[in-house]
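SAMPLE LOG
Freezer: B-3
Tube label: C17
Construct: single chain, 172 aa
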Amino acid sequence: MRLDDVVDAVETVESLLADGETGPVQDSLSWQQADADVQLGKACAMLGTCRQLRRGTNNYVSIVELSFNAIERSFQFYVVDQTAAESSDFRAHEQVFEEIEGRGVFSDTGIPGRIDSFRSEHRARIYYDIDRPGRDLATGMHELAEAVHGYVVKFADAHSRCNCGEWDPDES
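STRUCTURE (predicted):
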């Protein structure tokens, strides 16, 4: 790769964004119009990518990062779906965790706060390569994200809006 290749690539992306011609939207998001459903679709897409990564690679960093994102998008879906909030209301990660905690979605288990606690401590450490996640953490995070997502979808009675389908952990 040469510098000219980088310049060309930047210009291509700038042009696509400026012209609003970013191409067809991915299938899982193309039909969604409501703000909440877009967040739900993003969570479903991230979990689908985690499933694919677990089948073919040892890319544990990506699985952990996508799992954190899927949990946050699942929470954001619920809050936007059930309240007058909009996705753009949540500028800081912890806001959506606090909102979910306050709504009692997970009863008095403290689950959102517990996830937010290790998100705030470990996600940054992994992101900045201070910690490097191993297979067991990646698997655990993915299974946590699947469980949280499935629970939130059931709690919101939103099965018909979820794109995940059935996930068989034995296929991973």
